[in-house]
Amino acid sequence: MSKLKWQLIIVTFLLYQRSLSAQDIPSKRIVEGFNADPKQFPYQVYLMILKDSHPFTACGGVIISNRIVLTAGHCIPTKFNAVKINFGTVDISNKMEVGQQQLIVKAKNVFVHPEYELNNKPNDIALIKLPADLLFDEYIQPAKLPDANELYENESAVVSGWGTTSYNGPQPNHLQYYNVTVYSNEECKNKLVPDIFPSSYICLKPSQSSPCYGDSGGPLAIRNEDGSHTLLGLTSFGSETCEFNSPPIYTRVSSYLQWIKKFE
After folding, report:
1. Using an 8 Å Cβ cutoff, are 213 and 242 in contact?
2. Is 124 an active-site residue?
3. Is the pTM of this model over 0.90?
């Protein structure tokens, strides 16, 4: 596949939400995903970017400590006022959901990686510094950060988010997930284009499920034996039409541990 062709068939999952209000149509799918249970993904958050105090676009994010949430750099526009974060949420249409907390964070506390450029996908990561400590409980927990020296090749993992259930499809109210397998870097390079696949990417083996519009910034994680989760990646980009046979690309969190540490 030519480099130009690859660039034409992938787009960021910036998930300009096509409808910023919750959909009335229930769904069991991300694209061929499944409904999450309460407390199943306590590290997952729902982000609403506010511009001129109005909803602008939505993304996923991940709790990594009581003061830090990670998301994708492309989720954060150049100009905005604040980010509204839903913690402990499974059904985004249910404002009275048990375990849910909300927090609004001002733009001055949101940091996009300094080397990220919108049309140059590496370094697609942003950090939100919370103004107060999160209170952890069974609904809200951080994901662990990955080992800097571990590639997690061929590991079984899980992806979650509120992305659309198909290309041009509805956005579900209910958090979706699907199980995946991490490709090795060599497999990714062979499947894609070697000279545009940096080590700061992770890609997944093609499967019968796919992230889609609305999933950006959400987690790629593995489940540990003690029931906790380790964050491997953040949803970055993939097929424009959310196709199953095109490996989705994630920002490799272990490549940014030193940058994250500056905010602790």
Report:
1. yes
2. yes
3. no
Q: Is residue 84 part of a domain?
A: yes
CATH code for the domain of 175:
2.40.10.10
Do 191 and 208 touch, CB atoms closer than 8 A? no
Catalytic annotation present for 54: no
The count of structural domains within the chain is 2
Asked if residue 161 and residue 242 are part of one domain, the reply reads yes
Catalytic annotation, pick one of 160, 209, 210, 216: 216
Q: Is residue 218 part of a domain?
A: yes
Range of the domain at 93: 42-129
Strands (E), the chain: 10-12, 34-35, 44-51, 54-63, 68-71, 82-87, 101-106, 110-112, 126-129, 156-161, 176-181, 201-203, 219-223, 229-239, 249-252
Query: Does the active-site annotation cover 226?
Result: no
pLDDT tens for each residue of 63-120: 999 999 999 999 999 999 999 999 999 999 998 999 999 999 999 999 999 999 876 6
- Please pick, among 27, 91, 124, 209, the residue that the annotation labels catalytic: 124
